[in-house]
């Protein structure tokens, strides 16, 4: 990869503007979350959410949350178009999943548009499988795949990406 990539844990006090501007640039208006929801996510899911900086410039982000004791949920991930296919999406996914694994999750879920081949390919490569179709999941009526990383594939990803010491829940 050209340039130096740094992944920094989201700081809710300072990073809201960065995440909002990345989200606005990466996603179409109809796909964007409201400012209030991004604010809520930044404040409640900080420990598992990261911003990617390339040579100091913010170029991507991931927001994930833990639900209950054992489920990680990737809520939003995106990389600016000029910085795609450089491994940044993969690095963000791994870092976020590892930080949730340290807190004891044993599987990860996410939803993705059925037309979103780049994201689906990335998720499959990480070990996610399609577990169902959520009909008309998005505001514009498009269906989503519910994808899950669990069991052996979860363990394999953790072995590959993380040096995890599980903490008690
Ligand atoms: C999905 C997304 C985050 C991937 O980010 P990225 O930094 O380009 O991903 P990576 O470079 O880490 O790609 C890892 C692998 O994913 C797959 N992949 C990524 N983009 C792909 C594409 N356009 N077509 C096919 N496969 C793709 C490839 O297998 C790739 O590995 P390779 O480059 O060695 O072949 C990025 O395309 C994006 O921001 N899209 C718009 C926002 C979005 O749709 N987010 C997901 C919402 S659920």
UniProtKB/TrEMBL annotation:
Residues 5-152 form the N-acetyltransferase domain. Keywords: Acyltransferase, Transferase. Pfam families: Acetyltransf_1. GO terms for molecular function: protein-N-terminal amino-acid acetyltransferase activity. GO terms for cellular component: NatA complex. It comes from the Archaea. Signal peptide: none annotated. The keyword Lipid metabolism does not apply. NCBIfam families: rimI. This is Ribosomal-protein-alanine acetyltransferase. It comes from Vulcanisaeta distributa (strain DSM 14429 / JCM 11212 / NBRC 100878 / IC-017).
């Amino acid at each position: 990869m050209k340039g130096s990539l740094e992944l920094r844990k989201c700081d809710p006090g300072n990073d809201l503007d960065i995440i909002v501007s990345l989200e606005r640039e990466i996603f179409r208006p109809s796909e964007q979350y409201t400012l209030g929801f991004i604010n809520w996510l930044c404040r409640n899911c900080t420990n598992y959410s990261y911003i990617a900086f390339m040579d100091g410039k913010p170029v991507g982000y991931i927001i994930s949350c833990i639900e209950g004791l054992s489920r990680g949920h990737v809520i939003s991930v995106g990389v600016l178009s000029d910085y795609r296919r450089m491994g940044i999406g993969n690095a963000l996914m791994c870092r976020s999943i590892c930080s949730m694994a340290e807190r004891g999750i044993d599987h990860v879920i996410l939803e993705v548009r059925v037309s979103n081949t780049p994201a689906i390919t990335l998720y499959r490569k990480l070990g996610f499988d399609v577990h169902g179709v959520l009909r008309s999941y998005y505001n514009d009526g498009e269906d989503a795949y519910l994808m899950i990383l669990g069991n052996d594939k979860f363990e394999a990803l953790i072995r590959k990406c993380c040096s995890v010491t599980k903490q008690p829940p």
